[in-house]
Amino acid sequence: MPSTAIGKHLRVFALAAMILFAARAAVCRDTIARDSVSLAPESLSNGAPCLITVELHEKASAVAGKWQGHSVVFFANADHRTWFALAGVDIEVHPGEYPLTIDVTLKDGTHKTLRKDVSVEEAPYEKVPLNVPDKFVEPNAAALKKIAADKVVKDKAFAKSAPKPEWSGDFRPPLHLAPQSDSFGNQRIFNGKLDSVHRGLDYRAKMRTPVAAINSGRVVLARPLYYEGGCVIIDHGLGLMSIYMHLSKIEVAAGKKVRRGQIIALSGASGRATGPHLHLGVRWEGSYLDPAKLFQIQMPQVR
Ligand SMILES: [Zn+2]
Known about the structure:
Blueprint (H helix, E strand, L loop, with lengths): L2 H25 L8 E5 L3 E2 L3 E7 L4 E8 L2 E4 L1 E2 L5 E7 L7 E11 L4 E11 L5 E4 L10 H19 L27 E4 L2 E5 L3 E3 L6 E3 L4 E9 L3 E9 L2 E8 L1 E2 L6 E2 L4 E4 L11 E7 L2 E3 L1 H6 L7
Parallel strand pairs: 2-9, 10-11
Antiparallel strand pairs: 1-3, 3-7, 4-5, 4-8, 6-7, 8-9, 11-12, 13-21, 14-20, 15-16, 15-19, 16-17, 17-21, 18-20, 21-22
Bound molecules: zinc ion (ZN).
């Protein structure tokens, strides 16, 4: 082989080795140069859920955050350098800049604080007139008693969430056949009176359409309520819950574990409903978030 050809082969070999080395370095990232905090989605509006990722130079034993008056509990990847939390911005939050502070407890017991200023934009929500039977707009004394009793039951269901994530992987819509309306955040005017902001997403589901759990978790409520009609609430852990309303048949019981995609009920038109549909709510630490935006977030595969 002529010497120029050998030189060419050596250069190709060296180049291949360099590419291989660079690829390996990218795959086994043993060190993280500096601590970072990132959000998905990157820009937030009122009603948006978000995944917070904290990447640390050193291993940590605990990571906890403060965000708009809420405590944010992080869970770790196996390396204890990457930590995640699901959080969100309540629908009623005004646009502006809000601090996210994160306290990191390192393996040696020392602490450090990370801070990120997060801007919240205003989401465009509409005013929508609706007509329902008068008993739902001006409930009588018996109905008010039932509404008050329902509140006690719901508060109890909402009060305790699992201390670790019960969900895994992406959140998926509760049904696929029915189209969803972009109704989250609408200001609803029931029978001519401004009532409340719509804190969920409606699916135009025909009567008795099977409804699936949007992710794994534990059922914390499964019963009829006055406004909600047939209602199921699933706790996904760390303050995140999903709520399914107006059901015609409930197929799970409180206390039972469910898997993502498991059929938990059949849709209906019970409670304060203008017709057959499924109402899906997503609640984090008392804040209602847009379910459609939760489905768009790619969740981490925790190892
Ligand atoms: Zn609804």
